[in-house]
Structures are given as structure tokens and as C-alpha cells.
Design brief:
By secondary structure, the chain is α/β, with parallel strands linked by helices. Helix content is 65%, strand content 14%. The protein has ten helices and six strands. It has helices at residues 2-51, 54-80, 95-123, 132-159, 162-191, 196-223, 229-240, 275-293, 311-323, 356-370; strands at residues 247-255, 261-270, 296-305, 329-338, 343-350, 375-382. The protein has a three-stranded mixed sheet with strand order 1-2-3, with helices on one face. β5 (343-350), α10 and β6 form a beta-alpha-beta unit. α1 (2-51) packs antiparallel against α2, α1 packs antiparallel against α4 and α7 (229-240) packs antiparallel against α8 (275-293).
Length: 387
């Protein structure tokens, strides 16, 4: 019990340190983004108003929305970092997904507003009056946005912050859009062809697209996505490294916010292991997986594996051949045949092409036809991870 409490305390300490560092990165990066975007918005707003350029003015509005997005990112990180309590024992990490939804909504609103204003300028055009100074300011803004976008995106990936990564990508998009504004201004000054209202529409479309994509990704996070295949393979590989483990299956990873993953798994073990041996193995696996991936194994179940090489092995091979003869049957595991009590039990992973109940009915009929004297128990598993 003392070792268990010590291990739990060590995990909590490591998580607290990681979370504190992550929050610092998010806040620091967001503050830099806020200050930079507000300065850019101010300069562009002045240039846009003086030159009667709707494209530059909308670019300023976009920078303002970026600053507001960074404020919301900070608030989300602060709230999401609150310590677990009685009401929310697994913490408040998912608040960050809600903050990402708000940021996506702001981006969408900015894009729709920009589209409306640009269309108005197409219907009722105004002649822009660019100056060399205004173009220099726009050019400098492009360079600043490129540097800011790369920095924010890198920090977002480092901190595993969806909102921060999206802000970085948005900043890089802004640089491209500002470049199109600059290009339209140069074209107007040389050939007197006004394209800025149409460029404004282009800016609006890109902003709306970014907002929709960000909202879609955040909704997927809230609903629950398929676990990262690379992470699944790593965890299963870590478990399978233990000499007693004959297979790791049914890995379920539940996400409670960025870097807050809790999981359960089944290990297939020899039927000769004692409970004391199993206890030692389980604690060893939990510690190994956490230190390597940061994922906390909250539940470890077991499948008993027949250690005999006689009739049980023959039954296993025959049943496995039946199961895998179907295209919708992806895997069989957790197999155990008890020749004394005449029972067979196993799990079958089935694809989404068939209803689990129908799959069980078909497999039971086929196995029972081959072994009519046995009672067959089949548990259907859905394809949660890439096998």
C-alpha cells in the first residue's frame, strides 16, 4: 500500500510540473501574440482609413480578432489548469476545447463580416490612395506575421495546445493574405487596376475556411477521436516488452484535455501466473507506460492464455481460422479453451461494416457447428484503434 501511494504521488507531482510548464508557455506566447497583433492592427487601421483601402482595413480587423483569440487562449489555459476537485475529479482540461470553439467562432465572425464589407465595396467601389509609407508598413507587417506565426505554431505544438497551434497557422495565413493586399496595391499604383475589394473577398473566404476547420477539429476532440496510432503502438509495444505478456489488447484512451490521457488495457498472460505475480507486473507496466508516454493506465484487465500445447492449441487454431475467414473480423484475442468444463471464450474485433450482435451470432453458429459439445462465449470489440 505504501509503494502504491508513493507511485501515485510521484505521478501527480510529475503531472503538476508538466502542467505548470505548459501553462507558462501558452501564456507567454499568447501575450506576445496579443501585443504584436494590437500593434499591427493599429498601424493597418490608420493606413486603411487614410488610403480608403477596404482590404487593409479588414486586415486590421483580422489582427484584432487574432489578439482577442489569444486572450481567450490564456483564459482557457488558466481555467483548464485548475486542480481536480470533488465535482470534477479528472480536472478541467476539456475547458481548453471550449476556448478553442470560442476562438473558432470569433474567426468565423471576422470572416463573414469581412465578406459582407468586401461585397459592399465591389458594388459601391471607392478609389484607394496608397502611399509609399503605407506600403512599407504592410510589407513590414507581412514579415512580422511570418515570424510570429512560425513562433506561435512551434510553441503550440510544444505545449500541445490546439488553440495556440491554430493561432500560429492563422498568423501564417495572415501573412499570405497581407501579401495579396500588398500585391493589389502595387498593381493599382502601376496599372490603375483596383483589385482590393476582390482581395478582401479572398481574405474573407480564407478566414471563414480556417474558422470552420478549427471548429470541426475542436468538435472532434470533444466528441472523442480515434487514438493516435503511433501512441497506441508505443503503449502496446511497452507492455509487450514484459516477458510474461503474450499480447496487449482493447486499449482505450480517454482524453480529458491536452496532455491528460487516461487509459485501460487488457494483457494476455499465462494461466499459471499467481495474483501476486500479476500485481507486480501490473504496477511495473503502469509506471513504464506513464514515464514513457504520460498516459495513466487506470485499469489493467487480463486474459488467461492456455499454456498447454495439446487439444487447447488445436481448438484455438481452428477457431481463429473461422473468425479471420470473415472480412469484417479484424482480430481474435483473449482466447481460452477449458477442455474439462467444455467452454470456449474469446474476443473478436469487428469492423464498422457489421453490427456486433450479428457478428457474434454468425461466429457462434460456426464455432458451435465445429465444437457442438462446447459452450461458446464471444465478446465483440469495436475497432477503437488501428490494429
Amino acid at each position: 500500500m505504501e509503494n502504491q501511494n508513493k507511485t501515485k504521488k510521484e505521478k501527480e507531482t510529475v503531472l503538476e510540473v508538466l502542467e505548470a510548464d505548459r501553462e507558462k508557455v501558452i501564456v507567454r506566447t499568447s501575450v506576445i501574440g496579443i501585443v504584436t497583433n494590437l500593434l499591427l492592427a493599429g498601424f493597418k487601421a490608420v493606413v486603411g482609413i487614410l488610403s480608403h483601402s477596404i482590404a487593409i482595413t479588414l486586415d486590421a480587423v483580422n489582427n484584432t480578432s487574432d489578439a482577442l483569440s489569444s486572450v481567450i487562449t490564456i483564459v482557457g489555459a488558466k481555467l483548464g489548469g485548475k486542480a481536480p476537485d470533488k465535482k470534477h475529479p479528472l480536472g478541467y482540461g476539456r475547458i481548453e476545447y471550449l476556448s478553442s470553439m470560442i476562438v473558432a467562432a470569433i474567426i468565423l465572425y471576422a470572416g463573414i463580416t469581412s465578406a459582407v464589407e468586401s461585397v459592399k465595396k465591389i458594388i459601391h467601389p471607392e478609389v484607394a490612395d496608397y502611399s509609399t509609407a503605407s506600403l512599407v508598413i504592410v510589407a513590414v507587417a507581412i514579415a512580422v506575421k511570418l515570424i510570429l506565426g512560425s513562433y506561435v505554431k512551434k510553441q503550440g505544438e510544444k505545449a500541445n495546445s490546439g488553440a495556440l497551434t491554430a493561432s500560429g497557422s492563422d498568423a501564417l495565413f495572415d501573412a499570405v493574405l497581407s501579401a495579396s493586399v500588398l500585391a493589389s496595391a502595387v498593381i493599382f499604383m502601376i496599372w490603375q487596376i483596383s483589385l482590393e475589394a476582390y482581395v478582401g473577398v479572398l481574405i474573407a473566404i480564407v478566414i471563414i475556411k480556417a474558422g470552420i476547420e478549427m471548429m470541426s477539429e475542436t468538435v472532434s476532440d470533444i466528441l472523442g477521436q480515434r487514438a493516435d496510432p503511433a501512441l497506441v503502438r508505443e503503449i502496446k509495444s511497452l507492455i509487450a516488452q514484459e516477458p510474461e505478456v503474450m499480447g496487449a489488447y482493447d486499449l482505450v484512451i480517454n482524453n480529458y484535455g491536452p496532455n491528460k490521457n487516461y487509459a485501460s488495457v487488457h494483457m494476455e498472460l499465462p494461466d499459471t501466473m499467481t495474483v501476486e505475480e500479476l500485481d507486480r507486473l501490473t504496477r511495473r507496466v503502469e509506471a513504464k507506460v506513464f514515464l514513457a508516454t504520460g498516459v495513466i493506465l487506470t485499469g489493467v484487465g487480463v486474459y488467461s492464455h492456455n499454456t498447454g500445447t495439446g487439444e487447447e492449441a488445436d481448438i484455438r487454431n481452428a477457431v481463429q481460422k473461422i473468425v479471420l475467414s470473415h472480412d469484417w473480423a479484424l482480430q481474435m484475442h483473449g482466447f481460452y479453451a477449458d477442455t474439462e468444463s467444455r467452454t470456449i471464450r474469446f474476443d473478436a474485433v469487428v469492423s464498422f461494416d457489421i453490427k456486433p450482435r450479428e457478428a457474434v451470432r454468425m461466429l457462434r453458429e460456426e464455432v458451435c457447428a465445429l465444437y457442438p459439445e462446447y459452450t461458446v462465449s464471444i465478446t465483440p470489440d469495436i475497432d477503437l484503434t488501428d490494429l
